[in-house]
């Protein structure tokens, strides 16, 4: 009987405040959708870092005959074979080095042509202008500074370059977008909480006579508050469900059917990451409005 009464009161409350309930559902859906998207973006950045950092190398470029006029380490001309052999031997002894590959000027020019194709830029460079290099694969890419400090000042070495520098700006951009999404999510969450509190207060005000009678006949505070808390929880849960739909739809449309077909060099997150986020979104959508309603009612339902 009590359960039937609570359910009937929930139905009455939702019908009386239909517009505000709809606003709560929409705001919760948007805020939790952004929350889930930010979590997935964080996983995407971590996946891309793991994928690309595993492929990038540290390049040790040697001086060639064209660098003699530039001064610095290459003032004495092209690197000698002995200098290259010494550096190779030292690299092989370092425990952080996984393997070392030699790239000649002709091989570098071939890769250059593959990169720029038939563009006008491709004709501006000749093979003798490109330096020989060692492509050093590290067991831990974050140990790049060890290679740089050990070999950048060596005779015959033009430059020690970490290929991560070319992709780091992309990761910084993605991290910035993630922070921006979190900021917008926080603002939307504040709006959702304010709507929940106002909706609960309006509902409690419209039923203040009923709650007063219930208090006089001995109903407990929890029993009086239960319909209002469940109203907020149901609205929040519906918003969370719509947020899950937005997250799944975004993964399917934006990533699977668009980005994955346009950008083949990026490893995108899988459905396992999405499935891991959805329960958290549903849990927050259920508990956040319920707790907000509980604390809002503690003062308002005193009769």
Automatic annotation (TrEMBL):
Keywords: Cell cycle, Cell division, Cell membrane, Membrane, Transmembrane, Transmembrane helix. GO terms for biological process: cell division. It is a multi-pass membrane protein. Residues 56-160 form the FtsX extracellular domain. It comes from the Bacteria. Its main location: membrane. It is found in: Cell membrane. The chain crosses the membrane at residues 21-41, 179-200, 221-254, 274-297. Residues 183-299 form the ABC3 transporter permease C-terminal domain. InterPro entries: ABC3_permease_C, FtsX, FtsX_actino, FtsX_ECD. One of its GO terms (cellular component) is plasma membrane. Belongs to the ABC-4 integral membrane protein family. FtsX subfamily. Part of the ABC transporter FtsEX involved in cellular division. Forms a membrane-associated complex with FtsE. This is Cell division protein FtsX. It comes from Streptomyces chrestomyceticus JCM 4735.
């Amino acid at each position: 009987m009590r359960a039937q009464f609570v359910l009937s009161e929930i139905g009455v409350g939702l019908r009386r405040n239909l517009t505000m309930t709809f606003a709560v559902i929409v705001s919760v859906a948007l805020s939790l959708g952004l929350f889930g998207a930010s979590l997935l973006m964080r996983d995407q950045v971590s996946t891309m870092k793991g994928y690309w950092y595993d492929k990038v190398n540290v390049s040790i470029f040697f001086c060639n005959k064209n660098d003699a006029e530039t001064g610095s380490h290459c003032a004495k001309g092209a690197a000698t074979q002995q200098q290259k052999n010494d550096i190779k031997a030292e690299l092989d002894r370092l425990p952080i080095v996984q393997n070392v590959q030699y790239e000649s000027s002709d091989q570098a020019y071939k890769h250059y042509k593959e990169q720029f194709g038939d563009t006008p830029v491709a004709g501006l460079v000749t093979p003798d202008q490109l330096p020989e290099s060692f492509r050093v694969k590290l067991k831990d890419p974050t140990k790049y500074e060890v290679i740089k400090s050990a070999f950048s000042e060596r005779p015959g070495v033009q430059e020690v370059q970490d290929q991560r520098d070319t992709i780091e700006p992309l990761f910084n951009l993605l991290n910035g977008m993630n922070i921006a999404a979190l900021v917008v999510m926080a603002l939307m969450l504040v709006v959702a909480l304010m709507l929940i509190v106002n909706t609960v207060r309006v509902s409690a005000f419209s039923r203040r006579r009923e709650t007063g009678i219930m208090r006089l006949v001995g109903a407990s505070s929890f029993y009086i508050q239960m319909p209002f808390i469940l109203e907020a929880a149901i609205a929040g849960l519906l918003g969370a469900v719509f947020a899950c739909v937005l997250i799944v739809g975004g993964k399917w449309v934006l990533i699977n059917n668009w980005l994955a077909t346009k950008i083949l060099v990026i490893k995108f997150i899988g459905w396992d990451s999405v499935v891991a986020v959805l329960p958290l979104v549903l849990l927050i959508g259920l508990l956040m409005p319920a707790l907000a309603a509980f604390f809002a009612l503690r003062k308002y339902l005193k009769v």
